[in-house]
Amino acid sequence: QVQLGESGGGLVHSGGSLRLSCTASGFRANDYHIAWFRRVPGKQREAVSCISSHDGTTYYHDSVKERFTISRDNARNTVYLQMNSLEPDDTAAYYCNVYNVWGKGTLVTVSS
Fold it and tell me: Consecutive 10-residue runs of the chain (112 residues): their mean pLDDT?
């Protein structure tokens, strides 16, 4: 069964860091582009970052450039999102995605 599972969310103060993990099961994550999205209640889902399957090319939303880093660990079939200098506006549920497969999300709360 193809699944994605996120972990690593939590409560941090503004300026703090978290590392989110997205672990794939039932398929090889490095064969696919993997994306991180976030959603705040009442707002549209937003694409935060993506890493390609071919050459590891990365994409970042303008609001997280220079603060977030996406990476892969193929041995662990996992994609990470390192989030530094967190701001209250980063508060959201974070989801990883490949095609039509979504994880259940992990909640990030940044206090001011």
Answer: 96 98 95 96 94 92 97 96 97 96 97 95
Predicted local distance difference test score (pLDDT) of residue 109: 98
Structure confidence at residue 40 (pLDDT) = 94
Contact (Cβ atoms closer than 8 angstroms) between residue 83 and residue 18: yes
Residues 6+ apart with CB under 8 A from 102: 4, 95, 96
SS3 95: strand
Alpha carbon 28 to chain centroid distance?
17
* pLDDT for position 22: 97
- Which one-letter amino acid corresponds to residue 24? A
36 with 81: CB under 8 angstroms? yes
Let me know if 60 is exposed, middle or buried by CB neighbors in 10 A (0-12, 13-18, 19+): middle
Distance CA 71, CA 75 (A): 12
